[in-house]
Amino acid sequence: MKLNNNSDQTLNSILSKHKEYLLVGLILLLAFIIRMGILLHTVDFHGISNGRILEAQMILNDPLNLKLWVPVHPPGHILFVIIGIKLFGSFFAISRIISLGFGMMTILISYLYLKQVFNKQIALFSILAISLYSAHIVYSIIGTSETMFHFFLFLSLYLYEQFKRKSNLSLLYLFGLSVGFASMCRYEGLLLIPFYLFFLRKSKINIMGFISFALLFPLAWMLVNYLAFGSPIEFLASNNFIVPQQINWIRDNGFNIDFIYKFLFWPKAMISTLGIAVFVFGWLGLIYAQLNRQANVLGGLFIVLFAIFVINTLREMLYLQPRYGITLGLMLIPFSVYCFMKVIEKIDSRIPRWTVLILLWTMIIPIGSQVLGSSLFAPEFAKNTAFYLKENRNLGSNIMIDHCGDEKFREPIKVLSRIDPIYFSLMPVMIDENNDYVIDQEKFFKMIENNNIETLVYSPYGDLAGILKLNIENIPQQRRNFLFTLKHKNAPYYIYDIKKVKNDK
Predict the structure, then answer these.
(1) Residues 6+ apart with CB under 8 A from 4
(2) Rounded distance, CA 218 to CA 463, Å?
(3) Distance from first CA to last CA of the chain, Å, rounded?
(4) pTM of the prediction?
(5) Coil, strand, or helix at residue 453?
(6) How far apart are CA 252 and CA 232, in angstroms?
(7) How is residue 494 annotated by DSSP?
(8) Which helix (H) or strand (E) holds 153?
(9) Phi, psi angles (nearest 5°) of residue 389
(10) Distance (Å, rounded) from C-alpha 69 to C-alpha 80?
(11) 175 and 210 Cβ atoms separated by less than 8 Å
(12) Omega before 492 within 30 of 0, i.e. cis
């Protein structure tokens, strides 16, 4: 009996001593189970993430070709995908695993940071909220660069706080490197450099140390841009050209993108993923915290990024992608928890702090709609098209695939087919007098012959419809000196074999 009492006391002592770590561990376990459970029952059908996989594979096939590093996307995420493919071989799921890993590490580093600028209670409830944050769940299992960016963003916040307290130059250099790599995951990370310089402005030594390390990765990327494209800021020029094109494409498809729509886009995006309660408490908590100089770096960064998001959206220089708003949501969550706790404290100090779970419960509601509304499910026509290409393509020949009214299907189909991306020829596009992308008709027919293209994945809703005007009957159709024979129907895609024939003229 005495032995049992001693054992119970020892166990209670261990639990009491390590309660914080146990709670953090349980929250991380919950976050992992939710994300892994969804990952195992879905596929990554996101156009951007599959495009990154194809880009990484192309770079591995031709590592000395710097032009394969597409400047519109920063290289940090691609670099990790390349390393992953090199280490583990199969490229099909590697980007999802990378996103999951960085998503989990973001939760952990967020706890370490928030514990410093708020307290343990707010930090614990905040990471519980992040584990239930619908948009973070979704993009922890989609292979884009968001979770990687979020990790280095919160790592920079944590390291800055550590440096501020300890004045250790090694921490300053690590802090600079984390900011630099964040900017190589998403370009808004470049805004972190002038932002942090404002807080380091009192010491020239600190400014120089930070700048020296923060600019290492961006300067290396500028060198690659210069060597490949002749301009060190090609990545900026590419974004400034492509984003207005994408917004005009949305308009051309019947969407009314007026001032009100653009002005309210980011608040609506956050409400749809956080829930209205967390959003409202977050803004109130943000204002209250700034007035009381609580977490002023985090609050200031949120205000700066939110303002730039809204301004650039109004200027039509930022693409309307709700996933960009996850960054804002992650920074708003701790202010929401902070505000809720302040409110119950004012009402009655005897109210237990765990009642904040009422607030966090509202975050569960958007999870279902966000998962079902995201690119986590492959349409049957896409799976069938990919399977046909895999089983029936002519070995050694190349394939061209058009979009089918929506660009997002093309890259996922290529990845689902498991065909090496070197066998997919890009569409020959040019810019017309209206500054729009159009198909270069002459180059298209030359490419068919010179690139040994024998398979065309065609859609009457794609760019090639205006040139070829192919019908969906099984009778072979001649266009110039090429014969197009329908082999597979799965609307909106139709797969044709291409054979060169003698011109009758």
Answers:
(1) none
(2) 36
(3) 104
(4) 0.93
(5) strand
(6) 33
(7) E
(8) helix 146-166
(9) -60, -40
(10) 13
(11) yes
(12) yes
How would DSSP label each residue in 380-410? HHHHHHHHHHHHHPPTT-EEEE--SS-GGGH
Q: Count the Cβ atoms, other than its own, within 10 Å of residue 247.
A: 19
Pair 359, 337: CB distance under 8 Å: yes
Q: Which two tokens stand for residue 149?
A: 């960016």
Rounded Cα–Cα distance for residues 117 and 123 (Å): 9
Burial of 136 (0-12, 13-18, 19+ CB in 10 A): buried
- Exposed, middle or buried by CB within 10 Å (0-12, 13-18, 19+), for 349? exposed
Residue 398 half-sphere exposure toward CB, CA atoms < 13 A? 15
Q: For residues 277 and 280, what is the distance between their CA atoms, to the nearest angstrom?
A: 5
Q: Classify 485 in phi/psi space as left (phi over 0), alpha (psi -120 to 50) or beta.
A: beta
Of 34, 282, 27, 48, nearest to 138 by C-alpha is 34
Residue located via tokens 């098209």: 385
Main-chain dihedrals φ then ψ at residue 115, nearest 5 degrees: -65, -30
Q: Is 27:107 a contact under the CB 8 Å cutoff?
A: yes
Q: Compute CA distances 117 → 105, 111, 176, whole Å.
A: 19, 10, 20
- Looking up tokens 């900011």 gives 179
Q: Which whole-number Å values give the CA distances from 165 to 249, 403, 471, in the listed order? A: 49, 54, 70
Apex CA 35: angle with CA 371 and CA 132, to 5°?
Answer: 75
Residues in Cβ contact with 145 at an 8 Å cutoff, skipping those fewer than 6 apart? 52, 73, 74, 76, 77, 185, 186
- 139 φ/ψ angles, rounded to the nearest 5 degrees: -85, 5
Q: What tens-digit pLDDT sequence spans the chain (505 residues)?
A: 454 555 555 545 655 667 889 999 999 999 999 999 999 999 999 999 999 999 999 999 999 999 999 999 999 999 999 999 998 877 678 999 999 999 999 999 999 999 999 999 999 999 999 999 999 999 999 999 999 999 999 999 999 999 999 999 999 999 999 999 999 999 999 999 999 999 999 999 999 999 999 999 999 999 999 999 999 999 888 877 788 877 877 777 778 889 999 999 999 999 999 999 999 999 999 999 999 999 999 999 999 999 999 999 999 988 889 999 999 999 999 999 999 999 999 988 888 888 999 999 999 999 999 999 999 999 999 999 999 999 998 888 999 999 998 888 999 999 999 999 999 999 988 776 666 678 889 999 999 999 999 999 999 999 999 899 998 888 899 999 999 999 999 999 999 999 998 765 4
Other residues' Cβ atoms within 10 Å of the Cβ of residue 369? 12
Contact 218, 190 (CB under 8 A): yes
